[in-house]
Design brief:
181 residues; alpha/beta; 6 helices; 22% strand; binds S-adenosylmethionine
């Protein structure tokens, strides 16, 4: 099942508003990108606003990666950045210090716990956009703070957004800048 376009567009607006001018520092990482639908939606939203931030996919199932690459090429006429790798083993530090991690419920609680332990090693400012967030307690247990929640009539319209302390510093800075303007 793929991400709903409107749900992700809403998350884009929320995160862009929250991070303000820090937004463009963040790379979007779709954890378990599947056929790449979320990457297409996010890239399109960035292009509309002329924001040159990276869009990256992580997916361990090679046939899906191939489809995602073809889809991206068809739409944007350029290659996309997808890592064919298990998210529990990937070295996230190679993606930079500012990561916006998108998850459409790709893992059970145990796997999510392992992936979060792995990401924490990258010492990044982290924002998690979590669609169908049925294991959100695992993020809370890892110390992430809930900054936004939107519910709909089913779980594919239920999004939670979490941050770590470094990203919250970016948020506070944005709101300070906004209030002094
Ligand atoms: C629900 S699909 C989400 C697809 C896409 N993110 C979207 O929103 O349209 C979840 C994806 O996570 C991938 N996945 C599950 N466990 C993974 C792991 N340990 N490492 C990398 N990808 C994984 C699956 O192969 C599947 O493609």
């Amino acid at each position: 099942m793929a991400t709903g376009t409107n749900e992700l567009k809403n998350s884009f607006k929320v995160v862009q508003f929250a991070l303000g001018e820090n937004f463009s520092k963040y790379s979007f990482v779709d954890l378990g990108c599947g056929k790449g639908k979320a990457m297409l939606v996010w890239q399109n939203e960035l292009n509309k606003r002329k924001i040159p931030s990276p869009v990256i996919g992580i997916e361990y199932y090679a046939p899906l990666v191939e489809i995602a690459r073809q889809n991206y090429q068809k739409v944007f006429h350029q290659n996309c950045d997808i890592h064919t790798v298990d998210a529990t083993n990937f070295d996230f530090s190679v993606l930079g210090q500012y990561l916006m991690v998108y998850m459409f419920n790709p893992f059970d609680a145990q796997l999510l716990d392992r992936v979060l332990s792995n990401i924490a090693n990258s010492h990044s400012a982290l924002v998690f956009i979590y669609l169908n967030p049925i294991h959100s307690s695992v993020l809370v247990d890892h110390g992430y703070k809930l900054i936004y929640e939107k519910k709909g009539w089913n779980n594919t319209l239920w999004t939670m957004i979490f941050c770590n302390d470094a990203a919250i510093q970016n948020l506070i800075l944005s709101f300070r800048l906004e209030s002094t303007n």
